[in-house]
Amino acid sequence: MKKIKILLITSMPWREDNNIGNSYSNLFGDIDEFEIAHIYCRDGEPYNKKVKEYFQITEGRLVKHIFKPSIKTGRSFVMDASNNTKDLSLTSKAMNKAKLLRWELFFVLRDLIWFLGKWKTKELYQFVDDFKPDMIFGTLTYMSNINRMMVDFQKRYDIPLVLYSWDDVYSWNHFSWNPLFMLRKWYNRHYIRKCVNRSSMMYTITKEMQNEYGQYFKKDCKILYKSYDFVGEPSLKVPQKPYHLVFMGNIGAGRWQALAKLANIIHEINAENGQTAFLDVYTLSPLSADIIGALNIEGTARLNKAVPQEDVMATQQAADILIHVEPLNKRDASFYRLSFSTKLVDYLYNARCILGLGLKTATLSYIEDNKAGIVVYDLDKAKGILLNLFTHPELIEQYGKNAWDCGVRNHERDGIRSMLIHDFNALTNSFK
After folding, report:
1. Residue 143: its pLDDT value, please?
2. Which domain holds residue 180?
3. 277-283, strands of its sheet edge to edge
4. Residue at 208 is within a domain
């Protein structure tokens, strides 16, 4: 059977050691029917086993080109698994600072660079021409350059555009009176609409987003989850004191504050009852002095660098309880209200009790609705809930079994990949 050639367009390079890249590997990595070429728009090198052909455009090159037109804004290269680098530090210090301080001006300037910069080059189009894609796949994003690029390629090559929406990048629920935010939001919404109008299919990551975006865009959307081979029996663990709590992932957008509250509660419980629990936090997020101080408490909590991808599952299996947090402030929580944290599927596969904390989002609702763990929206009640768990370890084990059963119901790999192959074949055939 002829392989379907997919042109993947993303902001970050596809790396299996971050959540975004890991999600792409999970979706496409083992599907032999798909061949993928990847265009990305950041510094850093890819790290995955699926893609060999890449085209990279960076903001630095775009700026340099303005002052020195001989500088190429993009480059094509070939890289396979044997020469991938395992460098986890992909983000510049300036970008990390902007993320920590939420500099709107920085993000406006980034959009301006892409608006003025010459990213439409003969080298880029030659790369696409040589690959001869059957379809375009990309994530609907708040970064207008990615949406503009997908629109441009769809117009130019007249092939199916498939979108995958992970976060609420369109609605005004995520709002600020900052005029720079409003300008950027208006501009991005314009290209999101153009992108959606050009698309042949749209996946969403939650049922909440499916319903809401279906209404916004008058478009049928399908839910696409991360998957695993949920076969055999779960690797359950008999919990024992001191209970080991583990968080993995992004602690930005105020999530670290929820973890800090959790750490303080554990500290109180340990002081009153002896060594009862310990919290380990693993993250790639940029760190401030406040974050480091709040998440390093002797005998209670420890802030760690992210573990290599090959060690993620073992680290989670060593835990008694796996933590998911959402922001505690409404502005940040509103951005993630329709989202689904992909690491949650890792949690389900490892059959551990899940503890969700923060303001209500689709992810927390999913945990609650599927009885895959305990969700605490009001952190003033978290101490009592934790004490009850620690007093009844059989509950911790039962929630671990519930988590596995949820994965079997909703995230079994064969069914999800069969859907993708069927959908993509139908789309590409319809354009022939």
Report:
1. 85
2. 4-227+413-430
3. 301-305, 277-283, 243-248, 321-325, 353-357, 373-376
4. yes
